[in-house]
Amino acid sequence: MCTVCGCSGEEAKIEGTGNHMRFHVHADGTAHSHSGGAHHHRHDIHYGLGPAHAHAPGMSQARMVKVEQDILAKNDAYAAANRNYFRAHGIFALNLVSSPGSGKTTLLVRTVGALQERYPVCVIEGDQQTSLDADRIRATGVPALQINTGRGCHLDAHMVGHALEQLRPRDNSLLLIENVGNLVCPASFDLGEAHKVAILSVTEGEDKPLKYPDMFAAADLMLLNKSDLLPHLDFDVSLAIEYARRVNPGIRAIVLSARTGEGMDEWLDWLEMQMDIAAFPGAEAGESRIGELEVRD
């Protein structure tokens, strides 16, 4: 514990300082360093290092943890109900998450265009305002329902449950959920989906998986979109995949361009394989089917 200000928590040696420097983190996330017996307050601030991994003015870390636990417990109950509904009706649901401008809606339009003759497909769109994205999906002939969250920054399982009551996806169908665009909050909310799919465009920088690790830890698949722009950018594809696998060693990555169609076949093959697996509800049958598909690949 620091005898000057009473802080406690993480300590670290900082390479290259020439001194033994200790780095302290307060419970509210602010940080400072000590070097050579002196006490230096640095300008680094990390509000996610407390027990709640977040900060709200006037609210203690313990209170924030309790509030988050209560919210997520209620969400998980609704997510379980959604998941049971999907299983009962053979619906394969994906939760597509990304930052704004990653090309999610363009990817969805191209995806439903390729699959709607093979499977019943419908879409739930999430945005704070407007129905512009749902309008683009409906123009393809596929049912789509827009959820506007107002000031909310993510979809939750309760919203999706109400959307299902109106949208009524067909049995044995594919349901694509386009979440509100940000790389933070949608990571924490289970919607009852089979998988989260993170879309990262090559214009955003390869370091996003390290900057926003929760999102890539929660996803089973990362789509690196807008690959047609790679000749004009310094984006390092291998480094982006390496960063994603630092936070989630099991994540799969597919490089594609929803605009030109490059790489779309691999994405569609993945979807087809997951649809086949979802059609076998028994675990034993599912594992057998996975083996068959892996041999085929």
Automatic annotation (TrEMBL):
InterPro entries: CobW/HypB/UreG_nucleotide-bd (IPR003495), Hyd_mat_HypB (IPR004392), P-loop_NTPase (IPR027417). It comes from the Bacteria. One of its GO terms (biological process) is protein maturation. Residues 95-251 form the CobW/HypB/UreG nucleotide-binding domain. This is Hydrogenase maturation factor HypB. The keyword Transport does not apply. Gene3D superfamilies: P-loop containing nucleotide triphosphate hydrolases (3.40.50.300). The keyword tRNA-binding does not apply. The gene is hypB. Belongs to the SIMIBI class G3E GTPase family. HypB/HupM subfamily. Keywords: GTP-binding, Hydrolase, Metal-binding, Nickel, Nucleotide-binding, Zinc. GO terms for molecular function: GTP binding; GTPase activity; nickel cation binding; zinc ion binding.
